[in-house]
Amino acid sequence: MTLASTIETEIVEYLYTAEKEKREVVKVTDHYPNLSFSDAYSIQQKLIERHLQDGSRCIGYKLGLTSKAKQQMMGVHEAIYGYLTDDMLSLEWEPLEYKQFIHPKAEPEIAFLIDEDLKGTNLTAEDVLRVTKYVAPAIEIIDSRYLNFKFTLTDVIADNCSSAKFLMGSKWMSPSRLDLGNLGVFMSKNGEVVQVGASAAVLGHPATSVAWAVNKLGEVNKGIKKGEIILSGAISEAISFKPGDTIHVQFSDLGSVAFSCK
Ligand code: 0L1
Ligand code: MG
Fold this sequence. Notes:
262 residues; alpha+beta; Fumarylacetoacetate hydrolase, domain 2; 4-stranded antiparallel β-sheet; 27% helix; 27% strand; globular; binds hexanedioic acid; binds magnesium ion
C-alpha cells in the first residue's frame, strides 16, 4: 500500500522546515513507525521537488552507507542514495558559514563526473568507468536533520541521506589514469590527521558503488545523465567540525580538497 499523500506532504514539510530553520527534529519514524523503504524514497523525491520549487537544480546523486562498517552499524546490507542540488556545491576558497548547519560532519569522498547517460538494472563498474570523464577529490558535509544525528534507515533515506554541502578539489583525472580502487586518503583537522582510509572501503571500488546507484535508479526507470556529478560514498568515518576549523583531505595521486569554517 502506498503512503497517503496527505501524510507524505506533512513529512516533506516537516523535513523541509527543519532544514530551512536549522533545527533538529525527532525522527519521522517516531510518528510513523511503519514507513517502508519505498515510502522513504518517495518522501525523498518529493522533498527534492520542494527544493526545486525554490529554484534549486538537481545536479546528480550521492551514495551513503557504502562501507561494510557503516552498514553493520545500521544493521543493513545495502547502500542508499540521495540527490545533489546546485546549492549544495561549495567552493574551496569560500569559508563555510557554520550557522547554515545544525551539527555538520565532513567525510572524504570521490566524485564522478559523468559524460554520457547511463541507465539500466544490470550495469557494472566497467560501464560506469566507460561513461566517467573525470574523478575528483571531494568532501561531503552531512548534516542530519534528526536529533543527535540518530535515525533508522527509513528516516535517513527520507532526509535525503543527511545531504547538506559538498566540495570538489581542482585535480580532475580520467579514471583510466588511476588505480581508483586502491587510493589512500587521509583527512586532517587543523593540521592533525583524524582519519585514514582507502578507496576500497567504498563497496570494494568506488565505481561499484556508482553502478549500484545506477541499477537502483534503473528499478524506478531513472538513470544518471551526462553532466551529472555522483559522490560515490564515504571513505572513512565522518568527523564533526566547528567555526575556526580547517578540514583537509589528501588523496594519493588524486590531489586534495579542503575548506575552512567560520
Ligand atoms: O553520505 C553519507 O554517508 C551519509 C549517509 C547517511 C548516514 C549518515 O548520515 O551518517
Ligand atoms: Mg557521504
